[in-house]
Structures are given as structure tokens and as C-alpha cells.
Specification:
- This protein has 179 residues and is mainly alpha-helical.
- It has a domain of 119 residues.
- The chain is built from five helices and five strands; from the N terminus they run αααβββββαα.
- The chain has a three-stranded antiparallel beta sheet. A two-stranded antiparallel ribbon has the order 2-3.
- Helix 1 packs antiparallel against helix 2 and helix 2 crosses helix 3.
């Protein structure tokens, strides 16, 4: 879709963006995704809330501005080509418990519904199949794994959120000063 085909960011969509940016900031500022909170029963709930918010913001970027499409460290597949696809796949897995998007391997023998790995390594359980192994390749990041998809907190989620902010804030001037 080229720039002339973009829709205007109407007031209701601006309010939704404002609410999503505020809520995502609140979630991130809690520190819930740090190792110190790894046993907190609300980590998964916070992640699901955050990924739903981020998916909505990325969809709005695609509709009203430009698709967020960086590929750095994105595990590509037939259905995942960039960060927007990866976030969508994880969001679908979060919201649809019976989704095939929880399946790690081609045969469907390994199901991963929520695994968090803090820093470098493979976590408590190594996830591997003949085709691949998933872990956290960076000591300074947190990996969230659903099925064959891995999202990094800093390299993916925070970056996508910031890129969405840079694209959408200029389209919502009445909210820009308070975000």
C-alpha cells in the first residue's frame, strides 16, 4: 500500500493507540520481565497483554503508516517473514490455546506454549529437534518462545514498540505531548 492509499488515523484509532502506548509503558516499567520476577505468576499475563497491544499497534502501522518489517534475529518460516509476522504468530498462539502455532517441530510432537529464557542459554529445558534448537543467544536479553517462534524483549518487542511510536505519534498530534 503506498502513501496515497493510507487511511487517516481517526479519533477512535488515536485513542486506542494512546491507550496502548500508555499501557505498554506501564507494563514495561513494572520490571515484570526481569529474572527477579521469573516466579511471578503474572509474568505470562503481562506478556499476553503486552503482545496483544503490540500486535494492535503494528497492525495500525501497516494500515495508517508503514509496516514494521525488520528481520534481525526473526526466525523466518513460511508464514513469518518479519517482526510483524512474528508478533502476530505469537499473539495468535497466546490467544488460541489449540492453535498449531504452539507446535515446535514439523511432526507436532513438541508443544511450547510459553517459555521464558533470561540471558544466554537454553533455559531449564533445551528445546530442540533435528531441524533447530531454540534458546536465548544474548546475555543481555530475554527470549519468549511459543512454538517455533522466539521474540526477544529488547531486540524485538521494545524495538517494534519504539518504531510504532515513531510512526504513529505524528499521526496523533493531540496525544503526542502527553505520551
Amino acid at each position: 500500500m503506498n502513501q496515497s492509499q493510507r487511511q487517516e488515523l481517526r479519533h477512535q484509532a488515536q485513542v486506542e493507540c494512546f491507550t496502548n502506548f500508555r499501557r505498554s509503558k506501564i507494563i514495561l516499567e513494572t520490571g515484570i520481565f526481569t529474572r527477579e520476577h521469573s516466579e511471578n505468576p503474572l509474568v505470562q499475563s503481562a506478556f499476553v497483554d503486552f503482545i496483544i497491544i503490540l500486535r494492535d499497534l503494528l497492525a495500525k502501522c501497516g494500515k495508517y503508516a508503514s509496516r514494521i518489517n525488520f528481520e534481525d534475529d526473526v526466525l523466518k518460516s513460511e508464514s513469518v517473514k518479519d517482526i510483524t509476522d512474528a508478533v502476530t504468530a505469537v499473539r495468535d498462539a497466546c490467544c488460541h490455546i489449540d492453535s498449531h502455532k504452539h507446535l515446535f517441530d514439523v511432526e507436532g510432537n513438541i508443544r511450547v506454549s510459553f517459555m521464558v529464557i533470561y540471558g544466554g542459554g537454553t533455559g531449564l529445558l533445551a528445546i530442540s529437534s533435528p531441524e533447530k534448537e531454540l534458546g536465548c543467544e544474548y546475555a543481555d536479553d530475554v527470549a519468549f518462545i511459543f512454538g517455533p517462534n522466539r521474540l526477544y524483549l529488547h531486540r524485538h518487542l521494545r524495538r517494534a514498540l519504539e518504531e510504532a511510536r515513531m510512526q504513529l505519534l505524528p499521526l496523533m498530534p493531540r496525544f503526542a505531548d502527553i505520551l
